Amino acid sequence: MAALRRIEALREKLRTLGLRPAVAMAAHNPLSAKLVAEAAGFDAIWASGFELSASYAVPDASIISPSTHLEMTRAMGEVQSLPIIADLDTGFGNAVNLAYAIPKYEAAGVAAIVIEDKTFPKDSSLRVDGRQSLVSIPEFQGKITAAKNLGSMLVFARTEALIAGLGQAEALKRGLAYVEAGADAILIHSKQKTPDEILEFCRAWPNKVPLIIVPTSYPQLSFEEISTLTQGKVRLVICGNHSIRTITTALRRTFKQILQEGGIAGVESEIAPVRDVFNLQGDAGMKELEDKYLLK
């Protein structure tokens, strides 16, 4: 029942036209997911393949195993109540591979999956000179249909046509074909440093199915500006990698300061106190169990 509530909550966010789109923040483990929920303002958690790969210090190129991805995604859902949007990249292979994955992610309580129309193994969309080859439209439609037939999760179809340099016409053609196959939303992606390419696509989008963007490369727009400039067509914005990038900066700063100062005293006022970490770990809940069930 909790999983169905999360699915419906996310579906309602996509239906609602407000002052800004819904916003999903990236996470890569249960602690980062819990901190997203603690911020009390995000609408969903993006279980980011890029962030998970980075947390294992390997490229975002279908290297992390499906079982690792699944278990981390499940764990993120267990420690907080926001809907989880699972970044499944290409779906671990073809439509058959995806078909085997769908019931597992459904059982893990995932509210939505995102699959992209690149070939397997994928390459990061923002990688300089990356391999950005796409599968055929009918092949990707088969993946969408499999996902819709085999689960109740929302299915967000991501086209990499602009990333691959195929142009607006191809991006629109693919987006509309994916809607025809049953996609609940279309994620349109760009690596241009300005939002012009994305805004052009949004203005031309003729369908009522909502759009999703990941404005990593063009961060200039506020959420309200995105809603205004796209006439409300963009209903979800994904902050795609901000957790792992923040952690990388913070760890480097703290490690450098400790080495420069020759001790840990100087960083104490700048890092979370141990009691804060205990709270995030659910220490109070464990204390209740100890008081109730352990012999004294």
Automatic annotation (TrEMBL):
NCBIfam families found in the cross-reference section: Pphn_pyruv_hyd
Organism of origin: Exophiala bonariae
Domain of life: Eukaryota
Name listed for the protein in its UniProt record: Phosphonopyruvate hydrolase
Similarity field: Belongs to the isocitrate lyase/PEP mutase superfamily. PEP mutase family.
UniProt-listed PANTHER family: PHOSPHOENOLPYRUVATE CARBOXYLASE, PHOSPHOENOLPYRUVATE PHOSPHOMUTASE
Name of a matching Pfam family: PEP_mutase
GO molecular function: catalytic activity
